[in-house]
Amino acid sequence: MIRHIVKILILGACLQLSAKDYSVREFGAVADGIFLNTCVIQHAIDYIHAHGGGRLVFYPGTYVTGSIYLKSNVTLHLKQGATLLGSTNPWDYVKDPYVGWKAMIFAIKQENVGITGKGVINGRGFSTANNMIKYIQKGLYDDPLRNDRPGETNRPENIHFRECTHVVVSDVTMKDPASWNQTYDQCKDLLVERISVDSKSYWNNDGIDIVDCDGAVVRDSFFDAADDAICLKSHDAGAICQNITVSNCTARSSASGLKFGTASRGGFRNVKVTGLTVYDTFRSAITFASVDGGQIENIEVDGVWSVNTGNVLFLRIGNRFNSGKAPSLKNVTIRNVYAEVPYTKPDAGYNYEGPVEDYPRNISPASIVGLPGMRIENVTLENIEMVYPGRGDSLYARVGLTARELDGIPEMEKSYPEFSQFRELPAWGLYVRHADGIRLKNVSFRAQDTDYRPAVVLDDVNGGTFAGVTFSEPDAQGKEQIFTYKSANINIQ
After folding, report:
1. Over the Cα atoms of the chain, what is R_g?
2. 404: which residues sit within 8 A by CB, 6+ positions away?
3. pLDDT tens digit sequence for 342-358
4. Which pLDDT score is estimated for 359?
5. How does pLDDT run across 118-139, given as a tens digit for each residue?
6. How far apart are CA 183 and CA 209, in angstroms?
7. If residue 333 lies in a helix (H) or strand (E), which one and from where to where?
8. DSSP line for 386-418
9. C-alpha span between 161 and 172 (Å, rounded)
10. Do the beta carbons of residue 383 and residue 335 sit within 8 Å?
C-alpha cells in the first residue's frame, strides 16, 4: 500500500508542474451566470486533448454548464472566484449509457485527468431535482418517483469518474449536487486533497464515494453531507476497493461519517484511516458493513474525535444480495478514539435530517454484529473513550438478559444495515454478537446518567480479551458491567 501512496503523491506533483494553460474564454466561454457554456467547454477540452494536453483555466466568473466529458491529459483549473454552475434544466445533462448515471463532469476510461484550483463546482441540485419532478409528473421523463423524488441515477452528480488512471482533484469547493456529489469508480491512482464539500441540498447527497478503486489517497478535506460523508463502496462482485488511505479529514453527515458499504459486492481491503473528525452526525461515526457477499479485511483506523454523533461504531455482516458468496469481516483495528453520543437528535436543524422513524428508542451502543455461520473475526479496540448519556429506561422499552430476551433479538440478515435496525439492544456501551477474537485494551465506557442495562453484552462470542477496560456510571456500585451469554474463552483482566 505504501508503494501506491508514493506513486499517487508523485503523480499529483507532476500533473501540476507539467500543464500548459489555456483560458476557457479564448474558446468563447461567457462567465455571466446565464449563458450555457456546455458546448464551448467541451470543445476546449477536446482541443487540449488533441494538442498534447494541458490545463483549461477558468478565471473569476460564473460559467453555467450541463454535462461535459474530461479527456486524457486535461485538467480543469478553477481560479479563486471562478464557479462552474450546473444548469437547472435536467435536459442539459447526459445519462451516460456506460455508467448509467447523470453528472455535470464525466471522465470515463481516461488517464492523467484532474480538477484543481480554489474555485467552486455548484450543481444547484435542489432546483434541478425539483425541475425534473415537474417533467416526471407531466409524463415527459420515465422515473417511478419513489418517495416523491427522482431516482439517484436520474439526478446529476457533480463528478463521475469511471475506470480512470492517475486522477488528481485538489483545492476545489463542491456543493449542492442533485444526487451523490463525486464518484470515483474503478479508478487507479487517485488523489483527492484539500477539498471542501457542502453536499446537503437534496436526498442521497453523499460527500465522496470511492467505488472499487485500487490506490487512492483522500486527505486534508472537509465533507458536510446529507447522506454518508466519506463512503467506500463496492458495486462489482469481481472487483475490490483496496489500498486506500484517508487522513486528516472532517465529516458531518445526516447518515454516517465514515462508511464502507452499503453496496459491498466485492469488498474492501488494505484501508488506513487517520486523523478523522466527526460531528453533528445522525448515524455512526464509523460503519463497516459487508452485506452483499464482499469481504472486509485489513482495516486500520487510528485517531478519531467524534462529538454529537448518534453512534460510535457499527460493524456488521449481513446476507442481503450475496450472489452465492459468503460475506466476511475480519482483521480490523480501531485505536485512539474519543467519542460522545448525545441524548438528543444530533443532526436536528439541518436541511435533510436522518429519518425520524428511528425514534423513539433508548440510545444504541456501539455494535459488532455478525450472523450465525458468518462471524466477524479479529477486531481490536484500543485506547478508546466512549461517553454516553445513559438514561436507558426499562419502563419505556426493555431488552433484558434472559435467554428468551437475548435469543429474541432478530438477526435481520436481509435488512439494510444501520446501527438502529435492532431498535432496542441490551447494552448501553457495546454489544457483540456472533464474533470471534474481540480484543479491548484501555477502553473506557462512561455513562453520564444511570442506565438499566450493563455496559457490555457478549452474545455468542468465542475468544475475547478485556485489558484495562473501565466503566463509569452514576449509582452503579456493584453492577455487573460485562455480561456474557453463549460465549467462551473470555478473558477479563
Report:
1. 24
2. none
3. 999 999 999 999 998 77
4. 78
5. 999 999 999 999 999 999 999 9
6. 5
7. strand 328-340
8. EEE-----TTT----SSHHHHHTS---TTS---
9. 16
10. yes
**What pLDDT does residue 13 have?**
52
pTM above 0.85, yes or no: yes
pLDDT-based confidence at residue 2 (cuts at 50, 70, 90): low
Set of cell numbers at residue 420: 438502529
Give residues with Cβ within 8 angstroms of 94, minimum separation 6. Answer: 66, 67, 102, 103, 106
Q: Which residues pair with 69 in a beta bridge?
A: 106
Amino acid at 273: V
Q: How far apart are CA 48 and CA 11, in angstroms?
A: 20
Amino acid at 247: S
CA dihedral of 16, 19, 20, 21, whole degrees rounded to 10: -40
- Report the C-alpha gap between 21 and 188 in whole angstroms: 25
**Closest by alpha carbon to 470, among 489, 452, 445, 493?**
445
Residue 362's pLDDT is what? 94
Please choose, from the candidates 226, 168, 217, the residue with its C-alpha nearest in 3D space to the C-alpha of residue 197.
Answer: 226
pLDDT band with cut points at 50, 70 and 90 for residue 438? very high
Cell reading at 188: 487507479
Q: Per the structure block, which three cell numbers stand in for 378?
A: 479479529
Residue pair 164/141 in contact by the 8 Å Cβ criterion: no
Q: Which three cell numbers stand for residue 9?
A: 503523491
pLDDT of residue 80: 98
Alpha helices in 320-456 (DSSP H): 403-407
What are residue 77's DSSP bridge partners?
57, 116
